[in-house]
Amino acid sequence: MDDRVPSVPEQKRHDSHREPATLRFDVLGPVRARRGEEALTTGSPQQRALLAALLLREGRTATAAELIDALWGEEPPSQALAAVRTYASRLRKVLDPGVLVSESGGYAVRGLGEGALDLTVAQEWAAEAEKARAAGALGRARDLLNRALGLWDGETLAGVPGPYAEAQRVRLEEWRLGLLESRLDLDLEQGCHAEAVSELTALTAAYPLRERLRELLMLALYRGGRQAEALAVYADTRRLLAEELGVDPRPGLRDLQRRILQADPDLAEPSAPQAEPSAAPVRPAQLPATVPDFTGRSAFVTELSEVLAGASGEGDGGGGGGGRVMAVSALAGIGGVGKTTLAVHVAHRARPAFPDGQLYVDLQGAGARAAEPVTVLGAFLRALGTPDSAIPDSLEERAALYRSVLDGRRVLVLLDNARDAAQVRPLLPGTEGCAALVTSRVRMVGLAGAHLVDLDVMSPDEALALFTKIVGGERVASEREAALDVVAACGFLPLAIRIAASRLAARRTWTVSVLAAKLADERRRLDELQAGDLAVKATFELGYGQLEPAQARAFRLLGLADGPDLSLAAAAAALDLPPEETEDLLESLVDTSLLESAAPGRYRFHDLVRLYARACAERDEWPPSERGAALSRLLDFYLATAAGVYAIERPGDRLVDDLEPTEYTGLAFTEGPAALDWLYSEAGPLLACVRQAAGTERLRRAVDLLWAARDLVESGANSRQYETTAVAMCEAAQAAGDMRTEGRARNTLTSVLLVSGRIQQAAEEARSAMECAIAAGDATAASWAAQDRGLIALHQRRYEDGKVFFDQAIAGFRAAGNGLCEATALGNLSRAYMGMGDITRAVEFAQHGLAVHIEVGSTMRLANGYYALGVALTKADRHAEALSQFSEALTIFVDHRQRLWEGTTHFRIAEAHIAARRPARAAQHAEQALATGCIGGDRTRGSVLTLLGHALSALGQADRSKACWREALNLYEQNGAGEAEDVRALLSPATAA
Fold first, then answer.
1. Which of 140, 740, 816, 820 falls 20 to 30 Å from 404 in CA-CA distance?
2. Higher-scoring residue by pLDDT: 911, 39
3. What is the pTM (predicted TM-score) of this model?
4. What letters, b where the CB count within 10 A reaches 16 and e where it falls short, cover 613-627?
5. Residue 600, preceding bond cis, omega within 30 degrees?
């Protein structure tokens, strides 16, 4: 028989649109035949062996002797020939006429339709993947290989006897593994290191002698920042090969170890980082639109364009073969001088020189809270095609990955409104062929190698030309002197000129002289024209003075709100107007350039315009109490809406009944996904609204809003901003002497600290929270504090204390009729009993908690019930039942975007597998937990690494297991965790012996 991986050339190319009655055959699993969706009977194992042999003959005739040898080998039965004929006759009756034909004393399968054999389809997709990879379309190649691999349904030719079937089984399995290695290689080329580690760990356990898998695992670990584990994999492999085969690792594996030891920089990035033409996100085009009436600045345009040409390689006469340097140009000047307009204009002109894309971000450097580089890097990496799961957490790791992704590409990065050089440095590409344009109100003298440009006001001719383009040549020509007076009154600042000209252009009854007379009144302009950033206030005054009363009110009141932007619904609440009327007002303000449209339905102020709007509110808003009323309505809107989201996610939780009442209603949602979408999209403005209430009569409502928005913590989203806000609220409540509010604020801070694994700090805050709650008679906050103190006791292995706290929490929740929180506390009490060694009661309390969850109709928190019962069942050695509970929990956590709980559940699944002596499965889920992140921060990560070490040790990977334990020990020691002693014991020579 033919030893090659078979192909069937006469079959047509696979098409997903098959005719309903087409014959189809499967060999990549059990041998099956179908007509449309109808399964056909293929007979006995020997009869299926005959069918498989014919299907794999590529349409060629197999003689009777060849078929007998394929089915029985060297010891055929005496009636073998008759049996072959019988099998063929039976198959012929089942299959379509003319498919199984007799020819020259043998048989053949002919005339199959397109896509009739799964093996053929897999071969076609694998061939297409190879072509796509060669063309640089890595994403398509990866997708095609995944589709090909997905055709396997268990063991190839499963249950088919005979020497030929066995030989083909081995050969096709080798081919499958080769495809899998190719797909994993593509994973690493596209930066999916964390996901690959989990799969490779399982594969190396299943195929311990397959060196290519070990090599890919080493590379994935190294690129994930786990160098010690990568080297441990090599040590395990070398020892295994010596013990099992008496050989050394192949040269490729040895070379990889050497390069890891030398920290070869080429290993830290994919080998083929070119952008894929088929993947739209990989070629970002984020530049804002350039203004059609851009005027003047010709010397600056030429200067900056030449710098960019040097970066792109266009300035070397075409012989440079690509970019020569990574150029940085930093524009500095006062607010309103046109830095952004000039930078955007130059960037658009340079787009052809940067074919791999353009990135843009407003760094909000002039505001009180500038954009964090770590957040900007996350957005840039996503725009460049990096999946969320592959984006690391720390600033240093994100910056390194960002530079790696940009290496070999020609991308222009526009960093607008920067605060200082420290904010900019992590965002610079760092490789030749790329360039960065930076705008800031300060000179970037600390930015090494940057080309600095100081942008001054326009010349009188440029200013007049800009004014003329906006207003119209005819109106200016007849009043040239008045026009010169206008631009002079604007201080020749481009933003001021643009606003003034736009107002005039919108009012056809005005003359230029009327506008000039208005500007001549210095009382309408600020005396501090040259006072830094506030120099443009005179221009804002001009725009504001032309607003209709309703527009001016909207401008003043919306400028009071902190936060990066406002949604239309939030603005309507602040203004106490219907959404339709509010939208008309906001769009009219956008037309005047006093407001920006950040996205459909979202609006933002330029930072200086916001300051000016607040000054107007202090000066013009009457009665003055309306300022506070607007912010109160905005807070009411956020609190009422967040409480509704909380109620949808936690039916049966009575917390929403104990929040401060609101006068203004919020949005109403009927489905959980839409509610969560709102919460996550509004996180920035919501938390800013909370912070802004410090020191005001709104403090109590603000803290309750923070409490109702606690999903922002457990999901892992916005946890840093949430913590900053919680700290501010604790300080404000303490300063106000409001024990009730302080207790609740400290409860929110305790939640952040618990999720991040800072147990000692959490213990201090939880104790203070309980003291405040008891002193204020706040039973709700006291019950929550007792729950948190119980969780802290579990972390500190004080299980009896934990039981006491959970009993207190359960009594309090039960008295308040808060079934959901009672159910959660019952699940936590189960863990206390586990710690005390009473597994039977642990299971009983976990089951009771789950029953209460179901009774009250829990949605998201039902997952916690399944989770708690799974943990207890694992301790009871009821592993199959435990895994069933964890599966239910995982599905719910994923659906509700609780990423940290998702990772923690993978950790618990790994625990169940290791207890059931399935180390390979345990290692796979432990890797998924590491890649996803867990509740408990570094402490839980240490637990995951400890478990992973046990799994790897059971798989014979002693060196890598020790590397995991060493990393876990370091994390435990940093957090002062008692588990450190356990890990030291694992690493001690006595234990190893």
1. 140
2. 911
3. 0.61
4. bbbbbeeebeeeebb
5. no
